[in-house]
Write a structure and sequence with these properties.
About 85% of the residues lie in helices and about 0% in strands. The chain is mainly α and about 170 residues long. The mean pLDDT is about 85. It is built from nine helices and no strands. The chain has one domain. It starts with a helix and ends with a helix.
Amino acid sequence: MVLGATSFCEAVFFPVPPDLLLLPMGLANRQKVFRFALICLLTSVAGGVVGYGIGHFFMEKMGWTIVHFYHLETQFATLQSWYQKYSVWAIALAGLTPLPYKLCTLSAGAFGLNLPLFVLVSLGSRGLRFYFVAALLYLYGEQARNFLERRFNLVLTGVLVLVVAGFFIMHYI
């Protein structure tokens, strides 16, 4: 329930990626990791459709509030040029990478990208992302869990550095 809600909300406004729940849940229960990935996929794309709708119908009233809150104005302009040049490939890139998917969903709606194509490409790219993580957890989960238990402080420090770097990159680049 929390995994699906996080995944859904991340596609619209929430700053925490569902991977942060998928990883520990998959490590705790490797037998259900592909079910967890499916939950992330379906709820993320459903949230993406809501984000698309906000961008398409309510960009002025709601969408810009989200963009401004996360200081994503520059990235929004960049996505506009990417959509003009690359169309669906821009969606695929945003779906596969740590780029804010919420920005992709809002801008896809605001720029009037084809909704069925948006959903199809989101299913493919988000599916690749979540199922890749699930496959790694399924195959190497036990070794990863052992490593995390031995080196938790080091891993936590590394994650915090990556999060801060990500926010720095999003804000200044």
